[in-house]
Design brief:
Blueprint (H helix, E strand, L loop, with lengths): L14 E2 L4 E4 L2 E6 L3 E4 L9 E2 L9 E3 L4 E3 L2 E2 L9 E4 L2 E3 L4 E4 L4 E2 L5 H12 L9 E2 L2 E3 L7 E2 L5 E3 L4 E3 L2 E2 L9 E6 L5 E9 L3 E4 L2 E6 L4 E4 L11 E4 L4 E4 L2 E2 L8 E2 L12 E3 L2 E6 L4 E6 L9 E4 L2 E4 L2 E12 L3 E16 L4 E2 L10 E4 L2 E5 L12 E4 L2 H8 L6 H9 L3 E2 L3 E10 L5 H8 L2 H11 L7 E4 L2 E4 L6 E3 L3 E10 L8 E9 L8 E3 L10 H17 L4 E3 L2
Parallel strand pairs: 19-23, 44-47
Antiparallel strand pairs: 1-2, 2-3, 3-4, 5-6, 6-7, 7-8, 9-10, 10-11, 11-14, 12-13, 15-16, 16-17, 17-18, 19-20, 20-21, 21-22, 23-24, 24-25, 25-26, 27-28, 28-29, 29-30, 31-32, 32-33, 33-34, 34-40, 35-36, 36-37, 37-38, 38-39, 41-42, 42-43, 44-45, 45-46
Protein name: DKNYY family protein
Pfam families: DKNYY
InterPro entries: DKNYY
Length: 555
């Protein structure tokens, strides 16, 4: 195979310098999450140094001539005077850079260029494309910089910076993060919204409001809705989504729920309608008329509300195209049919938060707390009969698997309801066209098929401090909240002579677990041996443990 192919892998017998850099056969390599190992071209393996045992700065290395962010040179930095300032700012006293710890997709590499470079790589005429890298920004020279309080914040005597980008009019002496406020009253520092006591910022963007002490970022539990950051101005009833202001003429706004395990978009009600933020178009959209009398409602349970003796609930849905993949995600606000809020009574659950049974006359309902990421897309399900409801109430150790069995057996069903309004976000699939144009040619199609033969496709993606399964689940898990990842090698089916596949499950520090996800060591139609699968699992374990995540291999 050409030396332009994948240089080394996690199983290569290399010498690790830290969790990112290693040496192999006299060369230095950098692990770039989602891009694999990349050779650090021209680096001197004998003099190469790193910030040893320092996760935050592990992606920075240097030799006698250059400083590197992964495999990319940070031009102008003197390695002999290099100093880490914290918050991912690095200086030699004259030249200063911000360089993100987490890799991001290289937007300078277009889709067409990436595909062509993959073809050239297979022919041995090009390196593999730099699809991901550690992004960096050079700051104004000859300034004295320090790190500031808050995620990725730095500054000099005159300016404050977020990820190396100037924060207009910010006072570097008083810049600080706002708080994220959660439903359980816990608070954490925001990594998106900041203030200097006068101005307010989304990242480095100056927002059109003056600071007041009612401002906070809302902590959202649902995975998809939490991918945007929402700032609440309680005094003025205003909302800012990823820095985009809702229409002030329609304020004040009220957030329906911060749970949102059964939603894909947060909904905000005002007297003039219900609104949501579309992160694809970066616009605030109207979902429909406000059904709540005088915009008043109470939360009965997560994602379940009462207003004017009516019961409302949220449900999430997705639409997938056969050829284009995910095309849209929606959130539905529904009204429960023939149930008055005054008749809706919660039954004693023995303090088990997952046994959430309500009664309305002779009808019984299960109010879900697992959410759409666990395949429970509706906040409310109707229980088929009283006997089933009573049986659920007697189970002191009821768990998710038990609820899923009830759902599959049709003991639980989606309740009769009227759809009041729907918010929907469509996903742009224009990026498919370059692939389709290239793959349309017979010769190229055959070549790409050859490239995919025996190609390894990792069962997970590491990006921005999160682990995400490399499948249609799309659920993200914060690395610092993971207790361990459990692997095993299992039979591909129940036949005793069948091959093996890998299986992984994430165990969170709060005790929750992900689904079991199955994977192969490569794209192949052939059976794989148990030893082959276990060798690949060891590679995956090494990759995770370099990011500080504990793993285990079980039978």
């Amino acid at each position: 195979m050409s030396d332009k192919a994948e240089p080394i892998t996690y199983s290569t017998p290399k010498t690790d310098l830290n969790s990112v850099f290693c040496t192999y056969k006299g060369k230095v390599y950098a692990a770039v999450p989602s891009n694999g190992y990349c050779e650090v071209k021209g680096a001197d393996a004998k003099t190469f140094k790193t910030f040893t045992d320092n996760y935050q700065d592990a992606h920075i290395g240097w030799d006698g001539k250059h400083v590197y962010a992964g495999n990319i040179i940070l031009k102008g930095l003197n390695p002999n005077n290099l100093k880490a300032l914290a918050n991912n700012y690095y200086t030699d006293g004259a030249t200063t850079y911000f360089c993100a710890r987490n890799s991001k997709r290289n937007k300078e590499l277009g889709t067409l260029k990436e595909v062509l470079q993959l073809v050239r790589q297979s022919m041995g005429t090009a390196e593999k494309p730099q699809t991901y890298w550690y992004p960096f920004v050079e700051l104004p020279k000859n300034q004295f910089y320090t790190s500031k309080k808050g995620f990725n914040i730095g500054g000099n005597a005159y300016q404050a910076f977020f990820r190396g980008q100037v924060m207009p009019k910010a006072d570097p002496k008083s810049i600080r993060p706002l708080n994220i406020r959660y439903a359980d009253r816990q608070e954490r520092e925001s990594s998106s919204y900041f203030t200097d006591g006068k101005n307010v910022y989304y990242e480095n963007q100056l927002l059109p409001l003056v600071y007041n002490n009612s401002l906070f970022e809302v902590g959202i539990e649902g995975d998809i809705p939490s991918r945007s950051a929402y700032l609440i101005d309680s005094i003025h009833g205003m909302v800012y989504a990823d820095g985009h202001a809702f229409d002030v003429s329609k304020a004040p706004y009220k957030m329906l729920s911060a749970n949102l395990k059964h939603a894909n978009q947060p909904l905000f009600s005002s007297r003039k309608g219900v609104y949501f933020y579309d992160p694809e178009s970066e616009k605030v959209e109207r979902a429909g008329d406000n059904p709540f009398v005088d915009n008043q409602f109470t939360q009965l349970a997560p994602d379940v509300f009462a207003s004017a003796n009516k019961v409302y609930f949220l449900a999430a849905s997705e639409h997938w195209g056969r050829k284009t993949g995910l095309s849209s995600r929606s959130t539905h606000l529904l009204e429960l049919e023939d149930v008055g809020a005054s008749d809706f009574k919660k039954l004693d659950n023995g303090e088990n938060p997952y046994i959430n049974i309500w009664q309305a006359g002779k009808r019984y309902f299960y109010l879900d707390n697992f959410g759409s990421s666990n395949l429970m897309s509706s906040a409310v399900y109707e229980i088929k009969d009283e006997a089933t409801a009573r049986d659920i109430l007697t189970q002191s150790d009821l768990r998710y698997d038990d609820i899923r069995k009830l759902n599959r057996s049709e003991a639980l069903s989606f309740p009769p309801s009227d759809n009041v309004l729907t918010s929907s976000v469509s996903y742009n699939r224009d990026w498919y066209w370059p692939y389709l144009l290239i793959l349309g040619g017979g010769g190229i199609a055959g070549l790409v098929a050859f490239l995919l033969r025996n190609k390894k496709i990792s069962p997970f993606i590491l990006q921005d401090g999160y682990l995400m399964f490399n499948n249609m689940n799309f659920k993200r898990y914060q690395l610092t909240e993971i207790d361990k990842v459990v692997f095993s090698a299992v039979r591909s089916n129940y036949r005793s002579n069948s091959g093996y596949s890998g299986r992984m499950q994430i165990v969170m520090k709060n005790g929750k677990k992900s689904f079991n996800t199955h994977f192969s060591t490569k794209v192949t139609l052939l059976s794989e041996s148990e030893a082959t699968v276990k060798t690949y699992i060891k590679e995956l374990q090494n990759q995770l443990e370099k990011e500080g995540v504990k793993t285990a291999l079980v039978r």
